[in-house]
Amino acid sequence: MPVDWTRIGPLPQVSPWRHGQRTLTWEQRRDQYAALPKTGLTIIAELATPVIHAERDRTHLDGILSSAAITDHPAPSKWDKVAIVPLPIDLLWVSPRGLPLWACTPLMVSDDAVTSHEYWHKRYPTDRADFGVKLRANTSSGRWREYRMPVAAQSASRLVAVAIGHAAEVQRLLDGITHIGKKGSMGYGRVLRWSVVETAGVTPDDILSRRPVPVASRLRQGDPVPARGWTPPYWYAPHWEDCVG
Asked: What is the pTM of this model?
C-alpha cells in the first residue's frame, strides 16, 4: 500500500517571496517528488581518497541526499534541526511523528577495503598569535587545548547503495556532492563521480535487510538495537528509536 507523503513533517520553511516572485515551497517539492515514477536503483560513488564514515563502516545515502536537496532548493530555507527534507526516493513508512523511512540503503563497500588509522590534530595557531590580546595561551586545557585524536579511515575504490527512486533526480542531486563522510575540508571522502543505474528486481525487502529499521514499523524482524539514528538527520538524538539492523 502506498505511503501517504503528506504525513511527512515538519518541512523546512522558506520565504514566500524572493526577488518579487513567489518561491517554490517544500510542500510543492514534496508533492513533485511523490508524483515521480520510481524504479530500482544502484548508486555508486567512486572515491579518490579514504573516507571517514559518520557511523561505523557506512555513510547514509538519504543523509547525503537531504544535504544536496537543501543546497539545491531555489530559495534559502529557514532551517530547523527538526525539519524533514523530501527526497526523490520512495517511502517505506512514516512514523507517528512524521519521520520518513526512505527506501535506500547506506553507502557501503562493494570490494576489498583497507582500514587505516588517521589522526586529527588541533594545534594552537602560533602563526597568528601576534594578533591576539594575550600572546601566551594555555594549550593543555580550555579553548586552546591541543590534541591528537585517532580515527579509522576506509580506503575503497567504490561505495555502493541500493534504492527505489527517480534515477534522473537522484543523479542531479548527487552530482553536486564532492565529498562524503567526515572531514571533507581536509580532503577525506573525495568523490570522483556518481553513477545512478536503474536496476530491475530491487524490492523493499532488499533495502530493509541492509539498513536500520525502527522496531515500531514492524517492517523487519530481528534482535532490536537500542536507540539509534534511522532517518536524516542521523545525529539528531531526539529522533532516535530502537531499531533492527
From this structure: 0.87
